[in-house]
Structure formats: C-alpha cells, structure tokens
Design goal:
The protein is α/β, with parallel strands linked by helices and about 140 residues long. The protein has four helices and five strands; from the N terminus they run ββββαβααα. InterPro entries: Prot-tyrosine_phosphatase-like (IPR029021), PTP-SAK (IPR057023).
Length: about 140
C-alpha cells in the first residue's frame, strides 16, 4: 500500500517511521491519496466518508468525553499507521488533532513531557491549544 508523502502539509512522521496525516475538516480534502482509516475528533457526528473511520466525541477546546474509548481509538490508529494511511482530523486541525497526534507520539515512545513539543516541531507550532489538552498528553497512559 502506498504511504503518505512526507513532504505534504499535515503529515507527521513518528520516531518509528509511522506516518499520520493531521488535517482541518474546514478545508477541502487534499488531493492525492485518501486515508484508509481516520479518527474524527468532534462534538457531533462527522459526515459520512468512503473510508473506515471512528468518531471520538470531543468538544472543541476540551477533552474527549470518554477517555477510555479515546485511548482505545488512538491505540488503534497508532497500530494501523504502521501499514495503513491514517488520518486524524477535527474542525481546525490544531487543538484536538494536535493533542491526538501527541498521544500517538507517546504510544510511539516519545516521553509524555516531550510529546507536545515533538508535535509542535514536526506538525504545527499551534498544536495542542489549551492547558488541559497539554495535561491530557502528559498523563496519557498513566491514568
């Protein structure tokens, strides 16, 4: 299976080499390859898409409403990213998406206290928008 192009905007390469695309649902779907699996982080049901996906109920600027289900979905995305094109998306593509990407970085071996900085360096300087999103990442896999 073809992988994401690492030169495209929004593609994060984790230390293991796994690639995950983060994006804003406000913007049109990028041209080129489509995801084979996606996580949509929204306070409401996402629109229908042609690829397999999971929805995490996650209100804007906040945290997932069910942290156990969110952790399970993030773990699934991390596992699938080894061999599939995985996309993580929310409305703006920064706060919730950045938080989820930082959690994937933790799953990939980045220490919790460094994961937000990793995602801000390799994905977007504006990733992870609130103090509680940052705390969610630093406590991910501990709670």
């Amino acid at each position: 299976m073809d992988s994401w192009d690492t030169t495209l905007d929004g593609v994060l390469q984790l230390p293991s080499g796994r690639l995950v695309r983060g994006r804003s649902l406000r913007r049109p779907l990028p041209s080129g390859l489509q995801p084979t699996f996606a996580l949509y982080l929204l306070g409401h049901q996402p629109p229908s898409v042609a690829w397999e996906n999971r929805w995490i109920r996650w209100p804007d600027f906040w945290l997932p409403t069910d942290r156990v289900k969110a952790a399970d979905a993030l773990h699934e995305a991390w596992v699938r990213a080894e061999v599939e094109r995985v996309e993580i998306a929310c409305t703006g593509g920064k706060g919730r998406t950045g938080t989820a990407l930082a959690c994937l970085a933790v799953l990939d071996g980045v220490p919790q206290h460094l994961a937000v900085d990793y995602v801000r360096l390799h994905y977007s300087p504006r990733a992870v928008e609130t103090p509680w999103q940052r705390r969610f990442v630093t406590r991910f896999l501990i709670d």
